[in-house]
Structure formats: structure tokens, C-alpha cells
TrEMBL record:
Gene Ontology, cellular component aspect: membrane protein complex; plasma membrane
Matching PROSITE patterns: ABC_TRANSPORTER_1, ABC_TRANSPORTER_2
The species this protein was found in: Pontibacter diazotrophicus
SMART domains the UniProt entry points to: AAA
Protein name, as recorded: ABC transporter ATP-binding protein
Key words, A-Z: ATP-binding, Nucleotide-binding, Transport
Length: 226
């Protein structure tokens, strides 16, 4: 039996801007633990809108989202923020590292936010993640002094610090050259294969998507292929 950890049930989303536009229509799918899934489709098809909903950042939709079998419907902002911090690791197109902090401090941030571990424990976890990604030598550098590819690796280490049940990425290779895009893909693949890490990555990069285990293809707010 597959261990379903994320489930979208008949999700519909409209924007009223000022006319009503249907942006997502009847989105239904589930993701099992350890799957490496990409979401693709043309610009404007609704990928980012869907990711906002799946990551609990947007609650203004019809339908239901279940995380580890628990419905997110009716949960208040504080409860959702807690779920996000504890269970979801984010990797964006732009890394959003804090330049005035060291690499280690940046990786520690989601751990400190959680109020679950002592500072020492968070530091230990952050160093372990940096080691896993082969960049522990950068730990004490200031974030602004590392390269673009290194920054994205640091962002992945940061996403992993709380042992998220899923990593969600929004165009994580969108700002990288071919070599660094491949490096990010390889890290994701390694996380899936060796650590049973679940990944859901929005990308318009067909090359990236085709290498993932499963593609969810969207068109005009609907799932075309899943
Ligand atoms: N706040 C908003 N108000 C009104 N319409 C919006 C809003 N945000 C997005 N949209 C519209 O919803 C549709 C889906 O946008 P979304 O950003 O999800 O697409 P996308 O597939 O992620 O595109 P891209 O690949 O270019 O990032 C687009 O038509 C967009 O114009």
C-alpha cells in the first residue's frame, strides 16, 4: 500500500480582479511518500497558484487539501504556519538568503523558527545538512560571498533543516545555468532515492521535468496528464 502524504481533492480557485477568472478547475491528485514529482505547463496555466494552495499559503479556494491524511480546511493561520514550518521545505527561484548572516545562520533559520530544538541542536542539524550537500566548508562565510550555484545548494540545506515531509520548489533552477541546474536536479534525485524524500517541483524546464519520476502536466488550470 502506498503511503499517501499529500492529497488535493477537487480544488477550484477563482480570482476576482475585478472580473471573475477561473484559474484552477477540479484539481485532484495525490502524492506518495518518496515520490519525485514535477508540475509543468505553459506560463499562466496555474502552477504557482496551485503550489501556493498545496503549501497552505493560500486558503482561499474550494475543495480540500489533506496533509498526512489531515484536512487543512478550517485551520487558522497560526496552525497552518506551524504545519508549514514543521512539514514543508521550500526552494524558490531566488534563494532569499540573508546576506548579512553567515551560511550556517541562514540554514539554521527555519529550525530556530520552529521552537522545537535548542540552538545547539539546530546548529548541529544545519551543519549535518551542509555536510550532506558537500558544502560544510562554506558554513562560516557570509552569505553574500558565495556563488549562485552554492546559494541554491545552501537554500536546499535550509529547506531540509527541519526534516520536512515534503520539499516544494517553485522554479528552483529558473535562475541557474545548465551546469548548476543539473547539480540541483542531482541533489533532488539523491534526496528522493537515498533519503526517501518527497519532492514536488514546479518547473517550466521540460528537460528537468522529464527526468523526474512523475510529471503532472497542467493546461488552462486543469490537469492534463498525471
Ligand atoms: N493575484 C491575482 N489576481 C488575478 N489573477 C491572477 C493572480 N495571480 C495569478 N493570476 C492569474 O492566474 C493565472 C495563473 O497564474 P500562475 O502564476 O499560477 O501561473 P504559472 O503557471 O505559475 O505561470 P508562470 O510559469 O508564468 O509562473 C494567470 O492567468 C495569472 O494571470
Amino acid at each position: 500500500m502506498q503511503d499517501i502524504i499529500l492529497e488535493a481533492r477537487h480544488i477550484n480557485k477563482q480570482f476576482h480582479d475585478p472580473v471573475t477568472v477561473q484559474v484552477l478547475t477540479d484539481i485532484t491528485f495525490s502524492i506518495a511518500k518518496g515520490e519525485f514529482v514535477s508540475v509543468t505547463g505553459k506560463s499562466g496555466c496555474g502552477k504557482s497558484t496551485l503550489l501556493y494552495i498545496l503549501s497552505t499559503m493560500d486558503t482561499d479556494y474550494d475543495g480540500d487539501l489533506l496533509i498526512e491524511g489531515v484536512s487543512m480546511t478550517g485551520k487558522n493561520d497560526a496552525a497552518l504556519a506551524r504545519i508549514r514550518n514543521e512539514k514543508i521545505g521550500f526552494v524558490f527561484q531566488f534563494h532569499y538568503l540573508l546576506n548579512e548572516f553567515t551560511v550556517l545562520r541562514n540554514v539554521m533559520l527555519p529550525g530556530m523558527k520552529l521552537n522545537k530544538y535548542s540552538e545547539q541542536e539546530v546548529e548541529h542539524r544545519a551543519l549535518e545538512r551542509l555536510k550532506m550537500l558537500g558544502i560544510e566548508h562554506l558554513a562560516h562565510k557570509m552569505a553574500y560571498r558565495v556563488s549562485g550555484g552554492e546559494k541554491q545548494r545552501i537554500a536546499i540545506a535550509r529547506a531540509l533543516v527541519n526534516d520536512p515531509f515534503i520539499i516544494m520548489g517553485d522554479e528552483p533552477t529558473g535562475n541557474l545555468d545548465v551546469k548548476n541546474s543539473e547539480m540541483v536536479f542531482n541533489i533532488f534525485q539523491q534526496l528522493a532515492e537515498e533519503h526517501n524524500q518527497t519532492l514536488l517541483i514546479v518547473t517550466h524546464d521540460q528537460g528537468f521535468a522529464e527526468k523526474t519520476e512523475r510529471i503532472i502536466e497542467m493546461e488552462d488550470g486543469k490537469i492534463l496528464r498525471n
